[in-house]
Amino acid sequence: MSEKKIIYLDNNATTRIYPEVLDAMMPFFKEKYANPSSMYSFAAGVHKDVEKARAQVADLINVDPIEICFVSCGSEADNFAIRGITEAYPNKKHIITTKVEHPAIIETFKSLERHGYKTTYLDVDGDGNVDIETLKNSISNETALVSVMYANNETGVIFPIEEIGKIVKKHGAVFHVDAVQAVGKLPIDLQKEDYIDMLTMSGHKIHAPKGIGVLFIRNGTKLRTVQTGGHQERGRRAGTENVPYIIALGKACEMAKAELSKFMEHTKLLRDTLQKKLVDNIDNTKVNGGNANRTANTLNISFKNIEGESILLLLDVYGICASTGSACSSGTLEPSPVLRAMGLPFEYAHSSTRFSFSLDNTMEEVDFTADAVIKIVKRLREISPYTE
Ligand SMILES: Cc1ncc(COP(=O)(O)O)c(C=O)c1O
């Protein structure tokens, strides 16, 4: 019996490891297993390969390789940035973020609140645009850090990083940007974007393995180490380097740079086609963040009066992988905090479905998915207790 074909439209959750990336990392499990800190030439070769990967990562975002600090994942990089800055500036007790950040940011802010920090969570409007006025009114010389995402994982909405960065710099605070959903999806040039002090990346969103991330730390940024121990990563992050994954990330960054224009063009065409087919053929839909500047690969769409979970279950029958903004917690379906912050009405918030594309996806998959979603929504509306 042949296996059901999978249509993978959940690339903001994770991506397939590219074969070239896997090929690059395999020798570091098999033959090149030395600890890069050891003193013999076998290790020196591995050390050199790690530095080559560091340069490949640096090249993608146009920075000096010594500003790249390898960590275990995007969540660790976010924790490191926030905790490292608050430790470095113990007298500044105010930190600012937005209401639509990833839990790696929100939960770290909550943890610092329990240690006496004053926090500000900026609102977003119905299109997902951030409230700049509140940033201007709340930031002061007491503010240690402002942490804002480059692009939102659920909606793809891109924040005005330059405008925010300039405000942050005017007040002498440190500016951290979680760019996990932006790196490899839009051009980032940190020589030009010199108002960004620290930036988070994650390997598994750009076809490298899960469990490798980066914190870019601009030269001169005062940051205390959080993971104490040995002197790896120039004393910034202790722990023997995860060499195979570092090599993989280097290769993935090299490929992401080479493919960036193709990625933006291809995924935008697929995303816009799916969006148009769904909006044209299904009543009462809402494209979340549709009026804002969005990453090319992300579509977040709601269908009034049905539940996202039911859509996903039925999509699964067709072999289609997508995700929903609502999560089942304590027996009730809670809409995502991101969509709640955008003020999405209850009857739309529960049905939000996210489709996120990569270069792997095809127009044939889009056509198949559009037909499937149209049938599924029709069927679910027929049996929905909420349908008027
Ligand atoms: C915006 C954002 N930040 C941080 C993370 C966490 O990255 P990781 O899975 O590597 O810990 C994610 C992962 O989904 C993300 O989308």
Would you mind describing this structure in some detail?
- It is a single chain.
- It contains 12 helices and 15 strands.
- The protein is α/β, with parallel strands linked by helices.
- It folds into 2 domains: 7-13 and 260-383, Alpha-Beta Complex (Aspartate Aminotransferase, domain 1), CATH 3.90.1150.10; 19-256, Type I PLP-dependent aspartate aminotransferase-like (Major domain) (Aspartate Aminotransferase, domain 2), CATH 3.40.640.10.
- The site of pyridoxal-5'-phosphate has 14 residues, from helix 4.
List its salient traits:
single chain, alpha/beta, Aspartate Aminotransferase, domain 1, Aspartate Aminotransferase, domain 2, 2 domains, 7-stranded mixed β-sheet, 4-stranded antiparallel β-sheet, 12 helices, 40% helix, binds pyridoxal-5'-phosphate
